[in-house]
Amino acid sequence: MRGLAAGVRHQASRFGAAPAARYFAWRVADRLVGYMPYRGLVLSRPQPQGLDASTTTELPCREVALDELAAYTSDLSYDLSGRFLSEASAAGNRCFGAFAGGKLVSYAFHASAPTNVDSDFRFHFPEGWVYHFKAFTLPEWRGRKLHASLVRAALASVGTARGFRGLATLVVATNYPSLASFTRMGFKPAFRFAIVGKGDDRRVLALLDEIGERFSVETIAPGR
Fold first, then answer.
1. Residue 207: what are its φ and ψ, rounded to 5°?
2. What spatial distance separates the first Cα and last Cα of the chain, rounded to whole Å?
């Protein structure tokens, strides 16, 4: 309970009483019955105002070949595994990274085909949308607008494809820093859902589409 109390105090100090109350309710519900609420956000403009040069870092950002990332799997701080990279390569995912002195300090992945949310559920999205996921920045480099730079670099590449409609992403609804970051970049709310239950009883609850697209989260069939 001490960890929960500290978390609530932290949320209240940064975001106010109402978000802190929602955070507390979520943590209690998740602990008791299993409850993970998500917000789906989209960025449908090829060159959003929130991603101009003044709001992004000057570190070089470029597409990173997935086999190039293998060198970082031995460093646990990067949260990359050989299995994840193998699956990402098989799915045709693309990665964009930011570098400082030749060292990778931030990255984000992009998928054009249905992609796993976790081991039990898969995110489906209409053709033309690109899923922006697994965005990560080393702790010592956070707060320097690297995420915005990665989104800008991705749009300069994947955003030029014929039929491109925009980026879509999933954020845990109580992850207020990430929600604020995406909002600053111009992402808009598009859908919401929750994964409820524990173990074999986990299921998707009430996906609400707010913009009339066919976003969905489906259970992964055994063996797939």
1. -70, 120
2. 38
Give pLDDT tens digits for 85-115: 999 999 999 999 999 999 999 999 999 999 9
Q: In angstroms, what CA-CA distances link 70 with 5, 24, 86, 131, 137? A: 39, 38, 10, 22, 17
- CB-based burial, 108-140: b 16+ in 10 Å, e otherwise: bbbbbeebebeeebbbebeeebbbbbbbbbbee
Per DSSP, the three-state class of 104 is strand
Q: What is the pTM of this model?
A: 0.87
Kindly report, residue by residue over 133-158, the tens digit of the pLDDT: 999 999 999 988 899 999 999 999 99
Residue 219 and residue 201 in contact, taking contact as beta carbons nearer than 8 Å: no
- What is the C-alpha to C-alpha distance for residues 59 and 57, in angstroms, rounded to an integer? 6
CA–CA separation, 149 and 62 (whole Å): 10
Q: How many angstroms separate the CA atoms of 129 and 132, rounded?
A: 10
Q: Which two tokens stand for residue 126?
A: 């209409």
Q: Which two tokens stand for residue 127?
A: 């053709």
CB neighbours of residue 21 within 10 Å: 13
Collapsing DSSP states into helix, strand and coil, what is residue 69? Answer: helix
Say how far residue 43 (Cα) sits from the centre of its chain.
Answer: 13
Q: What is the rounded distance in angstroms from the CA atom of residue 43 to the CA atom of residue 52? A: 14
Cα 83 from Cα 122, distance rounded (Å): 17
CATH architecture of 34-219: 3-Layer(aba) Sandwich (3.40)
